[in-house]
Amino acid sequence: MCVAPVCQLLQRQHLNPRLQQTTTMTKTYLMNSLIEKMQSPDQDFRFMGLNDLMSEIKQDPSSLIGDEPTETKVLKQVLSLVEDKISEVKNQAVKCLGQLIKIIRETQMELVVDSLINFSVGKDDELRDISGLALKTITSELPLEGKITPRACAKLAPKLLQQVSNTETPPETLIETLSTLSILITRFPAHVSDPALTPHPLPAIAPLLSHSRPAVRKRAILTLSQYVPVAPPALVNDLLQNHILPFLSPNANLEKQRTTVHLVAAIIRQAPQQLTPVYNDIIPGVVKAVQRDDDELREGCLQALETLLLRCLTEAAPFLSSIVQIGCQFIKYDPNYAGLDDGEDEEMADADDDDDEDADLDEYSDDEDTSYKIRRASTKLLAAVITTRPELLTSLYKEVSPVLISRFGDREKTVRLEVWATYGVLLNQTSMYGGLSQSHENDSAIRKRKRNSEERMDVEETPYTLLRSQVSSLSKALLQQLKSPKTPPPTLQAGFQLLHALLGVLPGCLSNQIIPIAAISQSVLLQSPATSTSALHLTCLSFIALYFATHAPGTFSVSLPTLSPVLLKSAGEKHPRVASEAFRVFSALLNATRPVKSCEWAERLYDQAFQRLSTHDTDAEVRGCAEDCIADLWICAPDVIKPKGGKEWQAICRTTGNTGGAVRMVTKVARDVEMSDDWVNCCVEWIMGLLKKSERGGKPEIFIALDTLLKRYSSGVPTDLPPTLVPQIRPYISTTDISLLSHALTIITVLLELSPTTTFPAVERELLGDIYQIAHSPLVSGAALDSLLMFFSSLVQADGQIATHVVPNLATLVEKANKSDANLANVAKCIGQVVQSDQGVAAGTIAVYSKYIKKSSKSKFTTSVVVLSLLIVGELGRFIDMSKQQDTFSSTIEHFAAEEEEIRAAAAFAAGNIAIGNLHQFLPAILRVAESDPHKKLLSLHALKEVVTHCSHGQLEGVAEQLWVPLFQYSEDAEDSTRNVAAACLGKLTTTHPTRYLPQLHSRIHDENPAARATVVSAIRHTLAESSPSYDELLASLIMDFLDLIHDKDLNVRRLALSALNSAARTKPYLIRDHLPILLPSLYAEMKVNPDLIRTVQMGPWTHKVDDGLDARKTAWETLYTLLDTCLAKLDLSIFLSHLLAAISDPSDEIKVIGHMLLVRLSASPTTSIALAQRLDELTPSLETTMRGTALTKDTVKQDIERAAELRRSTMRAVAALSKIDSAGSAPKFDAFVEESRKNEQWGLEFRELLGH
């Protein structure tokens, strides 16, 4: 309206009194005009009046505030419209109250609550319903923080509880009131748990458990379960003793026992810890109750037991065998279906077909049969057992798997699908925890030790052997359900998904079932995919592709005439995903039957793929899969595709559209097929054309293709190619994109190697100057640096004279560069590579740079010149014997005393590498320096580290004994930095002769000196990178003795032992996996905050707390993160999650972030997310606290603000990941927290982006 801009002026400060008065008058006029509208006899005007009021409040909440009488008048008018005869007006009035409750005064809030409560107890049904909706709305919209919230809760709660306690309250009102109480409890638990509240919720609601209306009882159960977590212990105990335990006795009233069982399940779901004292009474009661002859009670008991397993695994453990027995018993419960024995269940589907024909003669209707609910609940119970107890897989395959297979043909479709889904869970658990993954790891030493017991292992009962023995019955039972032409698409899809999961666990296990599989697949694929069946087609095709990939060709060759026509039909479908998947099936088939001789399906496949590639409007995914098929035809069926004349390449090698798939295809064919030079040349020209494009996307693949193609010329690279190609590569010789720089240098290197005569002049002219500049860039490292070194090596080999120019040019340019932009180590490596490739310049290079090292020189050289010279001499000394340059080595040692740290570090590097060239002469000199001068000990150790790092294995064996004792001596009573270097050297030496040195390390794990123990465990950590099987075999019997140092009394030794455990978990998990039951309790103990390790430090006028145990605690959490990746099967998720709660509430922000990372990882796994879903409400308070952060003041420094923002982002990432878990409504607190975070004004936008909507 026209007055809105005036209303917004109220937000400004320093308004003069006259303007304030005018604004107030304008607001009053606006509100009066809206009241007039709301009083209109025309329903449309009343509706619009409410709508305009909402719009004004949303746009400017202060538009109502000002004149209290006017505010009250507006509020009363809105309340009056709650009684309106028109439902649209009433609903709009309710929405309006939801907005008003956020801004009205306390007295007005009381008016709203009293009015709505009065409406809810009236005799008018419609008014009662709308008032209940209004109460829920205002409760949901109350701000979490604010002055009105405590008063509103204090007003609402007693009124609602009085209604609940009133025996005259109608059932419909009770249901609405309980719903409002649920919202109040969920959003404001602190206000509702006040001991002074009268009447108290538990005593008020508990009597409703005996209400005659089932809907009231159900609502009361939910509300009670939500309140129990915050209720006083005495009241909870009263609820248990008077309303739960008495009704779990065998002779209890059936109706009350049903209600009690549902209540127990709800409480376990919300607050399992509240029932801990009485689980030993509750669980037997539920187990006995399930045997009573009442279907509704049975279903409730089964659901309660399922919830118990998911939430209280430890408490349920003693009763697990009884629970499994119950699940296996009632999954067969079908009292209304007689005539089949257990062994005849496979025929149930056929019997179902007969049921349709005999329906008129059968007086019994399936609509009256509710026994399927019992079977479905039993199936879910067994799924919970499988999910939570993976360590029992072997016994589950003996007891549960045969029962599940026998029920594959259940006559109720929903139960049948649930049984298949449960078996899918069993297969997933087998894949994750069954032990097969261990055989894929680098544990050859362990397997070697077990080689003599292979025959015994073959007959040992493992999940895999038991599953393999049941595959025949499983596949027959499942395929029996899929073969009927009446089988609906969802059932077929579920069946193919289960078969796919089976092949994922046991590849090649369906060899004997190809005939029925082919027949069922043919019937599915013969139908054209529609919107409702496309998912079935995709699942079926995906399964066939996996079948081809995991079975020998002889298995399915007999069925190819049946399958190939329908697969070709699918490849020609308009549905892009179906066509793409069909081409993937053919790729799997081609690779499985390689080499393919001339056959009809391969010819037709070529035609189909070529037709797709020749059509300009082909879907991108379909095109990519067709390109892959053409590549596979070239590789696997050359006899089929070579006679075609190569016409497909014209369609593939296009320059417009998405060319990424074509580039990968050309690379694949060039790598695996001998192609003509003409073909290679055409492809190179095409690739060069793509290289000219400005966009970066796909450039790495283009360079890889070019590298592959250049190496495939059979008669050498054409002489005209390098002069043309080199200028095109020049734009990529830049540090703008380091990845592309690496690829570009690789291409130049290949050209120099394959065609040095024609390439070298172009490189020297076009690129060499730029490469000199890149050589000293600090951005060049890793793969890019390796490529740069290979380039210089190839350059020198291409031209014998260039080395004498390259070395001084590299050194001169780096001396001229800014210190911050110069990486002297890179330049030294490049010069070292040049000299190594052309050792004719070695003597001159050493002579030139040795003079900059000698301190006797009269000239004063800059620090950078001395550092560069030391680094160059070190790089050369690694492969040149410098025994004749003894003075250079002596000068290097003298630089150990230099003032500049850069010179000292470079001198240590140079000394160690010079020693490699002649260990006999130089190594004793370094040791003498270490022994004679304590100030040079650390630098000497760094020099020794260079020796042990870069020496060959044979060289090290010769000097290991000479180094071993001194290194241990240097590490005792030394600083951490010295000890760490010594430990790294000892670790490397240990791997040179494990049988000699590993026992020596082992003998010192109980040394009285904690520094020695720290050195030992740190040295072991450095040996874990060794991949030798023989070393693993030696270490396997000793590793627990080393890791036992996590119990050491010295904090630093414990931290280093935890770090060693982390390294072992990452590099050699097979050595520690079986020892985790012993290690984990100690690991969990280190995760707790130890108050004894926290000290207070005075910093000027401020005091600061320092936690000396933080580093060890952080290392423990990092280790747990690694174990989650490599040893998940050995982790008890229940205990794991209990400790994880401590991480996200740890005083240290670093550990909170690790906790968030753990949550993200757990939520991403289908298996662990199930367990995590049951603990979401327990995680919520800590996550909410961290999200809100500490209050920022004007004195808060920028670093603290940034740290708080980053911690909040970490929390949001965790919450966003957790929100994607299907909690099935079992985490109302978490769900409410997510919803509130989405709406938050401060971080809601960023959070919604993380959620993806």
Summarize the structure in words.
With 1253 residues, the chain is an all-alpha fold. The protein has 69 helices and two strands. The protein has a two-stranded antiparallel sheet with strand order 1-2. Helix 6 runs antiparallel to helix 7 (125-141), helix 14 (254-270) packs parallel to helix 16 (295-311) and helix 50 runs antiparallel to helix 51. The longest helix is centred in the first third of the chain and has 22 residues, at 17-38. The radius of gyration is 39 Å and the shape is globular. 43% of the residues are buried.
Q: What percentage of residues falls in helices of 4 or more residues?
A: 55-70%
Low-confidence stretches: 1-21, 339-364, 436-458
Shape estimate: globular
Q: Helix segment count?
A: 69
Structural class: mainly alpha
What distance separates the N and C termini? 32 Å
Strand order of the largest sheet: 1-2
Return Rg in Å: 39 Å
| Oligomeric state as shown | single chain
Instruction: Describe the sheet with the most strands.
Output: 2 strands, antiparallel
How much β-strand is present in the residues? under 5%
* Total beta strands: 2
The average pLDDT is: 86
Summarize the structure.
This protein is 69% helix and 1% strand.
Which key phrases capture this entry?
mainly alpha, disordered N terminus, 69% helix, 1253 residues
What order do the helices and strands come in, and which of them pair?
Blueprint: H1 4-8, H2 17-38, H3 43-59, H4 68-81, H5 87-100, H6 106-120, H7 125-141, H8 148-165, H9 171-187, H10 189-192, H11 201-205, H12 214-227, H13 233-244, H14 254-270, H15 279-289, H16 295-311, H17 313-316, H18 320-330, H19 348-357, H20 371-388, H21 393-399, H22 401-406, H23 413-433, H24 444-449, H25 454-459, H26 463-482, H27 489-505, H28 514-526, H29 534-550, H30 553-556, H31 560-571, H32 576-592, H33 600-614, H34 620-636, H35 638-641, H36 648-652, H37 660-672, H38 677-691, H39 699-710, H40 721-729, H41 738-754, H42 756-766, H43 768-775, H44 782-798, H45 803-816, H46 824-837, H47 842-850, H48 863-877, H49 886-894, H50 901-917, H51 919-932, H52 937-950, H53 953-971, H54 976-992, H55 994-1002, H56 1010-1023, H57 1029-1036, H58 1039-1043, H59 1051-1067, H60 1069-1072, H61 1076-1086, E1 1094-1099, E2 1102-1107, H62 1110-1126, H63 1133-1143, H64 1149-1164, H65 1166-1173, H66 1176-1188, H67 1198-1219, H68 1228-1239, H69 1244-1251
Antiparallel strand pairs: 1-2
